[in-house]
Automatic annotation (TrEMBL):
Pfam families: DUF2007. Signal peptide: none annotated. InterPro entries: DUF2007, N-reg_PII-like_a/b. This is DUF2007 domain-containing protein. It comes from Zestomonas carbonaria. Residues 1-65 form the DUF2007 domain.
């Protein structure tokens, strides 16, 4: 298995894990059980997404595309220009 991404928080980790699952890639979350220890352990690098070696490159590409997503023209509210609302 390879660690392919370090999510910022548990919400991002679960969103990405579900997105990868929808593409047929099973991702495992590491460090999620340590979130209760924040304050006692360093936060940076605590969470990680892992996938099988043969799916690592595809998973990285999917996450990169997800992170680079931009709103479609006409779908963003005028009060939030340039912000992707889910």
């Amino acid at each position: 298995m390879q660690r392919i991404y370090d999510p910022q928080d548990l919400l991002e980790a679960e969103m990405l894990r579900n997105m990868l699952a929808s593409e047929g890639i099973e991702a495992h979350l590491t460090g999620g059980h340590l979130l209760g220890a924040i304050g006692e352990v360093p936060v940076h690098g605590l969470l990680g997404l892992l996938v099988e070696n043969h799916q690592a490159e595809q998973a990285r590409q999917l996450i990169a595309a997800y992170n680079a997503a931009q709103p479609l023209p006409g779908e963003e509210p005028e009060s939030w220009p340039g912000v992707l609302l889910c």
